[in-house]
């Protein structure tokens, strides 16, 4: 190393290990400081200091950074190529729904949780639709939709490392292209399916492995394959793995660069939020076009759609309305942030409860751990109570709780299969070692370590100084009020 670098290591009393030296000297392809998503945002450059002295102004700064998303959506008006690719994705999803093919959304870390969030939204929509009294009449108009009986399962949201990674990302996995290929196979994705490979930075190896593997499926076509990312192409081209995708004519690219992140390097905010909104809008537009052409106006509206025809760009521009809604809730946001702050400051615990909003709440809670270097959710065996946060839903046991969260049973990785492939294909000794260790935390057995059920709540010994917050939709609140009035009467 250079003398100047040794000087600072000595000054800080830091000893550099062999793996650190290897990363600095030989892993240039994984040093991402040149990317926009790794740069500080001008509006929030002093966020830490401002938050300590003026929380309201800190929230204003975060909201200001979100306007970058509005600007990106406005730019689509003149970005004909990007807009055409987005519209192409709408058509692909529409065809997939009609044919009963899968819509596979894959990401790592926050984009993997994005994928799970969109799957949850899709599942929830169809569950509620099929529970309506008029569903029998509605379904009569939808007879031509293949697999209408199991349409709720067509959207698959997958995260690198499987369901255990929803709680905390598993070290080493995101740097492996092979894991994207293996999980694509696990989900039985073929050329008829639509694939969205989503990466905040545009360089995540696991996501790149997914889209490259999908592009090699027999009969694959670019109209079904989408690489969604949040950095300019010219900054990604020096990375070999990114360039392989960007120069691949068999993959459709959607560049959704929104700029620097409000919290430096934390792409869970502007990058992932904008990508969530984008892909959810693509699905919504496709579904709206299918249903509007088949349902009576009253039935179309009953399912929550605006009766006026809306194109994809107009639907995307509604993000500004969402942001306005957030701004109107600033006072409530600050109140919640303050009681959470008071709890954390005094070493107390925050208890969260969700039902229909369980997935949204779960994602927010688990994303806090890496962003702010906090302990993830405690396991059922953990006696030290490291996590400040506990999360619950209305379930009697952990199995039911996972069903509430995932709409299916917990799913891990096949330890034997993945170990065999890792041993044969990973050549880097450091990466192989950490990836094999992470596999031990990615199996089906991990399901039994995390309990989000009410039963678990009763077992924990909370104090009067701990806080509890329930996140509910309006219809859930109305239902609770009705039950309360019924009990009173």
Could you please describe the fold and organization of this structure?
With 489 residues, this protein is α/β, with parallel strands linked by helices. It has 3 domains: 31 residues, no CATH class; 290 residues, Glucose-6-phosphate isomerase like protein, domain 1 (Rossmann fold, 3-Layer(aba) Sandwich), CATH 3.40.50; 120 residues, no CATH class. Helices cover 52% and strands 8% of the residues. The strands form 2 sheets. A 5-stranded parallel β-sheet has the order 2-1-3-4-5, with helices on both faces. A 3-stranded parallel β-sheet has the order 7-6-8. Helix 17 links the parallel strand 6 and strand 7. Helix 4 runs antiparallel to helix 15, helix 5 packs across helix 12 and helix 6 packs antiparallel against helix 17. The longest helix is centred in the middle third of the chain and has 23 residues.
Please give the domain count. 3
- Give the name of the CATH superfamily of the largest domain: Glucose-6-phosphate isomerase like protein, domain 1
Strand content: 5-15%
Number of helical segments with 4 or more residues = 22
* Annotated CATH topology of the largest domain: Rossmann fold
Task: Let me know the largest β-sheet.
Answer: 5 strands, parallel
Instruction: State the end-to-end distance.
Output: 78 Å
Low-confidence stretches: none
Tell me, what is the CATH class of the largest domain? Alpha Beta
Structural class: alpha/beta
- Rounded average pLDDT: 91
* CA-atom Rg in angstroms: 23 Å
């Amino acid at each position: 190393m250079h003398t100047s670098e040794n000087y600072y290591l000595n000054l800080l009393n830091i000893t550099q290990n062999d793996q650190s030296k290897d990363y600095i000297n030989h892993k240039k392809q994984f040093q991402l400081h040149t990317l926009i998503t790794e740069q500080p945002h001008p509006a929030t450059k002093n966020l830490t200091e401002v938050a300590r002295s003026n929380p309201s102004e800190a929230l204003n700064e975060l909201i200001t950074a979100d306007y970058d998303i509005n600007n990106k959506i406005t730019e689509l008006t003149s970005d004909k190529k990007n807009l055409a690719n987005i519209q192409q994705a709408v058509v692909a999803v529409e065809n997939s729904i009609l044919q009963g093919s899968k819509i596979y959304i894959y990401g790592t870390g926050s984009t993997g949780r994005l994928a799970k969030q969109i799957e949850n939204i899709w599942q929830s929509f169809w569950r509620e639709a099929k529970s309506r009294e008029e569903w029998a009449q509605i379904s009569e108009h939808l007879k031509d939709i293949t697999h209408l009986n199991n349409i709720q399962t067509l959207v698959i949201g997958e995260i690198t490392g499987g369901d255990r990674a929803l709680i905390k990302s598993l070290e080493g996995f995101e740097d492996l292209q092979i894991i994207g290929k293996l999980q694509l196979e696990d989900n039985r994705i073929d050329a008829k399916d639509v694939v969205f490979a989503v990466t905040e930075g545009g360089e995540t190896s696991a996501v790149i492995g997914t889209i490259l593997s999908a592009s090699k499926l027999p009969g694959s076509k670019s109209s079904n394959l989408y690489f969604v990312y949040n950095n300019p192409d010219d900054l990604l081209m020096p990375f070999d793995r990114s360039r392989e995708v960007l120069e691949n004519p068999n993959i459709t690219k959607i560049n959704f660069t929104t700029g620097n992140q409000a919290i430096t390097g934390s792409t869970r905010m502007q990058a992932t939020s904008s990508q969530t909104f984008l892909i959810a809008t693509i699905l919504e537009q496709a579904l709206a076009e299918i249903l509007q052409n088949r349902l009576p106006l009253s039935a179309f509206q009953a399912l929550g759609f605006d009766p006026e025809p809306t194109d994809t760009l107009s639907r995307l521009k509604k993000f500004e309305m969402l942001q306005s809604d957030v701004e109107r809730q600033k006072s409530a946001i600050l109140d919640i942030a303050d009681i959470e702050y008071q709890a954390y400051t005094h070493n107390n615990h925050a208890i969260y409860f969700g039902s229909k909003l369980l997935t949204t709440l779960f994602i927010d809670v688990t994303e806090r751990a890496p962003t702010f270097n906090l302990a993830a959710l405690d396991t059922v065996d953990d006696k030290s109570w490291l996590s400040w946060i506990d999360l619950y839903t209305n379930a009697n046991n952990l199995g039911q709780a996972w069903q509430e969260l995932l709409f299916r049973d917990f799913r891990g990785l096949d330890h034997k299969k993945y170990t065999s492939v890792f041993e044969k294909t990973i050549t880097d000794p450091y990466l192989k070692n950490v990836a094999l260790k992470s596999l031990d935390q990615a199996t089906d057995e991990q399901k039994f370590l995390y309990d989000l059920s009410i039963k678990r709540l009763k077992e924990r010994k909370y104090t009067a100084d701990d806080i509890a917050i329930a996140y509910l939709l309006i219809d859930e609140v109305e239902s609770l009020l009705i039950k309360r009035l019924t009990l009173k009467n």
